[in-house]
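hiii so my PI (J.) wants the whole complex modelled not just the main chain, which honestly fair. so below is everything: two entries, each one labled with what it is. i double checked the lines twice but i was tired so who knows lol
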Amino acid sequence: MLDDFFTRALLAGIGVALVAGPLGCFIVWRRMAYFGDTMAHAALLGVALAFVLETNLILGVFVVGALTAVALVLLERRAALSSDALLGLLSHSTLAVGLVIVATLLVHLRIDLLSYLFGDILAVSRLDLLVIWLGGAVILGAMAVIWRPLLAGTVNVDLAAAESMRPEQARLAFMLLLAGVIAIAMKIVGILLITALLIIPAATARRFATSPEAMAALAALAGILAVIAGLYGSLFFDTPSGPSIVVAALALFLFSLLPIYPGWMARAGGHPS
Amino acid sequence: MASAQLLAEAKGLGIKRSGRWLVRHVDLTVRRGEIVTVIGPNGSGKSTTVKGLLGLMAPDEGKAHLAAGIKVGYVPQKLAIDWTLPLTVRRLMTLTGRYRRDEIVDALQSVGVPHLSNALIQTLSGGEFQRVLLARALIRKPDLLVLDEPVQGVDFSGEIALYELIHGIRDRLQCGILLISHDLHIVMARTDTVVCLNGHVCCRGAPKTVAESPEYLRLFGPRAAETLAVYRHRHDHVHNADGTVVPLAGEKGPEERHA
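here's the output for the full assembly
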């Protein structure tokens, strides 16, 4: 079964979607979208450094992402710039440095830049699959452990700290887990589209969720549907797979906005205006 | 009161940020069964002091500590919950711990809002919200209850009801209560100790003593003392620190009040 490249792509995408759902919810609740973007952009620097140091790509992306998160937390404490400006600075400078290094290496190593920027899910190997599912399981397990303090800190940092929940540690742990997700998701949708895979399914789930936990589960489900629809779409319409997955996620989101609820038909009929 | 268990203590507490002292030389204690109110104008360092006392901000000077193993219940000033977070009252109750359904019902009942358990947090009115936050802190059966500006967004009659509630909690749970308030509230009359803060401790003592102290009047103006009088039954005397009665006419308080 795993011999088929399309099956491997489906399994890889589903594995990433399962993890991206819960983490994406916290990104939405904590308004960290730009932060997610910054870490994703830093991933290209991770790719470049992994090539230079001849180490594993996923490891390189994770380490650079984690360092970016730590750098941001430290710079925030100094507070010379607003965190918004700091993110802009880190986001684009890491992307630029990454592009410069990769472009230099391109000549010698024939690196396919587009596959990192937009993903290359159809080239997922068995080893990639193993890394995605094992890494994903570790990330989900860690999320379960930090769930209560992280949620308490999202609601109110002082409250969580006063009631000994250690919200700052939970926040740092969450950032590291986010670096992990970006590392394993890079191959699926690419650096430039990872944030979409985190945010759009979470936003889709909001309308139907009645608790934070339900929203996390629904976001994972929405992500899985987007992966399946996007991959089959890319197969039939011969479109690039990473962007197709994001387009499918967007379609699901737009669908979730439709005012479909009991009595809608009657109300629509009752008011011709 | 002095023999009751010491729950939290700050000695010579000083906290500075970017080279400026937010508060300095603050002594503060809360004992079991005691209600302590910290008042002061905006920016006087009330929240900083309480955060220092609870260990949320590291002191740059002096010491602050909580008694070992005590449970804190915290009612924040306001919660800026993003509307994308689907949080019902019931789920909020288990934010920092696990509780059974009947415990949740009891806690909501004790603050008079049992009907709200399925409501979304974002849909509550100011008064309902404060009561729910109070219930959330109470379900922990805290040794020390900390309330930051608990009557914000609550109307006058709601304010009195809320303070009656807080008073009842002290009697029922036998916990220590630390209140923060940015101006003088009627509650002061039912507080054991008032600490008036303005970067440092201006004055402290029983509510009446503070309301009539010259430092307090300088800070808040003479009209502030009248607010207190609304609630307090009419007095023709004040007490000295040792409890002896001093007629009002003989003190300098009244002159300052009408200055």
